[in-house]
Prior knowledge:
The protein is α+β, with helices and mostly antiparallel strands. The chain has helices at 13-16, 23-26; strands at 6-10, 29-30, 41-45, 56-57. The model has no long low-confidence stretch (mean pLDDT 85).
Amino acid sequence: DKGIDALLVHGDPSYYEKLGFEVELGKHLIPSYKLQYEFGWQALVLSSTQIENAEFRFTCVEALSGATLW
């Protein structure tokens, strides 16, 4: 009800998959900055939005917007 379609994390896939996050879904959500370690980028879909068939580019909140954080 807050309009959030997906959650994204950057961490150990073997841990986050237990919580429902998927590495394959993360490949469709393109961050604003190049990731230093791409293997850990994962997503958990919270809505009926179809992520598997497209690529989505997004921006982050100001506190997380900075290339050195990625």
